[in-house]
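Support case: user asked for a sample of complex input and structure output to validate their parser. Sending the pair below.
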Amino acid sequence: MSVDDNTNDSNDAQAALMDLADQFHTQLATGEIPKMELPTRTKSNIVFDEDSDVWVYGDRTSTRTANSVSGARKLLRAAYTLNFLVQQVEEDRSSTLRELYYLSESWDNDHAAFSKQGQSNNLVEDLEIVSGVTREQFNMRPEESGATVLGPLEIREETRRGERDIHCQKDVGEGGYQIPSDVDHVEFLDHDAEFVLCVETGGMRDRLVENGFDDDYGAIIVHLKGQPARATRRITKRLCTELELPVGVFTDADPWSYRIHASVAYGSIKSAHLSEHLATPEARYIGIRPEDIVQYDLPTDPLSDSDINALESELDDPRFDSGEWREQIELQLEVGKKAEQQALASRGLDFVTDTYLPTRLDEMDLLS
Amino acid sequence: MNQQTTFGNGDDSVEDPDGEGVSSMAEEMAAAQRSISVAEFFERNKQMLGFDSRSRSLVTAVKEGVDNSLDAAEEAGILPDISVEISEGDDFYTLVIEDNGPGILPDQIPNVFGQLLYGSRFHVREQNRGQQGLGISAAVLYSQLTSGNPARIISKSIGHDTAHRCELMINTDENEPQLSSDEEVEWERDHGTRIELDMEANMRARQQMLSYIRYNSIVNPHARISYDGPKNTFTLERASDELPPETEEILPHPHGIQIGPLQKMLASTDSYSLSGFLGSEFSRVGEKSSTAILDGFRDRLFGRAGAWSATDTNDSALIDAIEDVVANKPPGAKLTFAEQIADRLLDGSGASPLTAPRYATHEVREIVAEVSESVEEDTGTVFGETVQRKATKVAWANLAEGRETDLRALADEATSAQKNGDLLTGLAQRLSNKFKDVDEHRATHDTLRDFVDRAADTTETRTDTTIGETARENITEAVWDEMRTVPDDVPKVKAVADDRDLVSALLASMREADLISPPSDCLSPVGEEGVKAGLKSEYDAELYAANTRSASVHGGDPFIAEAGIAYGGEIDENEQIDILRFANRVPLVYQPGACAMTTVTKRIQWRNYKLSQSDGSIPKGPVVLFVHVVSTNIPFTSESKDAVASVPEIEDEIEQAIRGAARKMKSHIKSADKRRERQRKETAIADIFPAFASKIASTTGREKPDIADSLARVMNNVLVTQRKTDSFDEDTLSELHDEAGFKADTSIEVWNFANDGTSSPEITVTVKDEPEEIGDGATISENGDGYEVTWTPTISSDERMRLPLITDGSRVELAVDGLPDERVTVAP
């Protein structure tokens, strides 16, 4: 997947989309039932890729055919979306996933309209997989996720209004530098960082900034804002590979947060076709670990039924199939509790920056 | 008066599964007539007779009249044509029922209309309507009691020129009809009967009245019924010109007879002996069954005789004993006589006391007689009656001596659990003592059981153990089985008829006998086609299904259950389903809740048949359910004959009948669902595919592809297209030419995409000029516009076929028959 060579992007993307349309045309012309083959997108069909250290789709595929009404409808939407994307690339315009969803309302066949945004998002991912081109290449943007970067890093962003050089401490407010939707238009100019710290919640990120953690420890603080958007994961990956910085992930201690870490470090199940592009296998989980709940006697909530199901499902998830994860998850199931990052405040507002993080970072050899 | 108070308890929900009600009622009424006036009797029992309210009485009167008319016409082979008129007068209602039946001879009119229970058919084994109810005379009586007016009757018999008209009242003291006017009149009908009754009544039971009339036409599609009542006037034309097969009266089956009718039959039979009586007046009683019944009767009357085996296998004691009692015979003959008797009696003994041959007195007597005869033949010495009697007595006494051993062995065998030897010995000894002073050791089953109980009780006390109920029963049966039915003569018919105890013993023996089921060809269900036709005449539905079961038996009576379903169409789908109940072709319109037909409907899990139902209740859906039972004896819950009693055998058959019809409904619903689903798919696909093709064409900038093939595949259709062979590649072309045997320029391509098997479409192409060549299996015909070439290929799933043709390029029109339109895609 050539993602660095921007000049050829649009041609490649368009050609890939046309290929797909051609396939459909041939199928119809030879009297076949139109179909599209996709890898099965479930956790049972992701495999660890030894070369890239990330999880990618396995060999199992499922076929989407026009044999049923719902199948035919999906392919019709695919045909309309293809048509739209080809035009969009040709005219060098861009649109958001949400715009695509609303745009479908204007298409001349009622069957072609998406009934939920999830459908259009999925379809765009399907097209990425089948065409081998990322949606950024056919100018589909997500809505800005609002995720930010703050730390000793200087970048150059190529905007539609020209290039901007930005220092991510000096040129930004306390909110930090907002990660654009297409990170491949960002160039790293210089940095003075020791490591990258990805933080799940806004509250904790603000605490770290207020306590000057970025300055004191040379940390580039990436705010994940929950399940991280692709751009957030992509920038993390680039910070790691291009600047050769170690990456730590700091989240709540609950099953959903472990999945956040997994999608940063190993790749997400939904976009495993882009794992090589988005996942940062070097990223390491800092905390909060179930062990920390016990060790620091943190204030907790009991695990809900869905928490327990999620934890049990993680025990089956190949991404969590390591001794350390298994131990932590089993411990958590045993104690039946979960804790938020900010629970650390129960030991004082500075505890996280003065004690918890330095201790953990030291244990993990992330401090030089 | 006593029978009145026990009989007339006014509870008409009494369960009467044996159908004993009607016959016992007949007797009770006969008795009642001797003691009180029939009017009083009627008054006391009117709710059981269907005359409990004014509205109900009107329905019952109509029902009695119409049932009578239908039966009479059918019996005479006439398609019934019946009219019912109800009009409201100042003081009472007037009911007129007129039919085209065979008419009633003048001298029979008083009996038919004026005497309760005339010609009582209550124990007649025939599927008829008259079985239900007391008959038209009850309506006449009700009319007279409430209006004071006589019944007006006109009847003209077949072949008579004039009709007979009379006014009739019932003398309620005598239960005798009285004619107050009696004359010959002109009547426009060829034959038929008309009865006019005034009565206190109202139309509050309009719904039941109309249901009764309407449902009658469903279950009697051969009848034409017109109704003219307050607010409603209509005629239900016949849906069929075929009379139901005549039902035959069958003789009663011994398993189904009740004591009253049996007594009556005994009193009126021409037979002298019981075996003659059984053989000629019952069905399924041949010589063997007659013997079995009479043996059972003997066992009850005389008891069975004890039969014992010899304990001493050494014959000398027996021989000595016999010789001792025979005096004045030559020693040689005497010895031979004694030896032969001993030989016969001891043959086979010495083995286990369980299997040793046993003999009762009369059996020993026979052996002695046989031996006497053969010794006399050999030696010339005569052994007379006295000698034989003495020899019999001493020989049997010798056997009976050892009965304790027999009894012990039998008790041991019968009670496998008890192996206490002392206990068994004690019991056998005591039981054997009970026989001591009994002549020929005879005992009835009850006496024997009493012996066993007494012996067991004493043994229990002595040994401080218990001998349980089952053990006692088993011992009794084991001994009873070894006892012999005695050869005594059974009483003659006359003697039995006069003695209720004897009748009851005979009845018990009849019920106990193992007999073939009664014949069922005497029944005439409506039949599946008839049920469907009947439902069709009354309901505009989408599906009519029916299921008629084969005959089954309850008590001694054969019966058949059948069910029908009308589904969909204009039947309301949001209501509980209507259950139309019928018994012997008579609609049942009262007490649905008490009826086995309703109970069974409720217990079926209708959700399995795609109807909604809350547990144990009547299902909801666009369904009318028809349930019909025919029998020579329908068991009703009460005298008013509103509901079929819950007899397990009948319920099971009703359930099977309903389920059978319901299965047909279910598969209809399923295939209708499938069709709808297919239609939905077709509509959607027909919208989606062209749009898909256009979008793809405009994206790729290529020509819009032909989607017919893909469409046919998606819809699992048979695709028929016409192609010019010049577009074929070389291989395909030569293959086609080889197969055809000529150089086809056109190929009709047939592709079966159906996933459910082989198709045989009839494909016709119309061409202007006569084709030069057509392939094998094609036929050609000329029509006004040109020539039609027709193929009927058989083509299996996913197979493709090419039908070759040379048409000189003239335009070909394609048509496909033999398949539903929606299963075919024809591409020009």
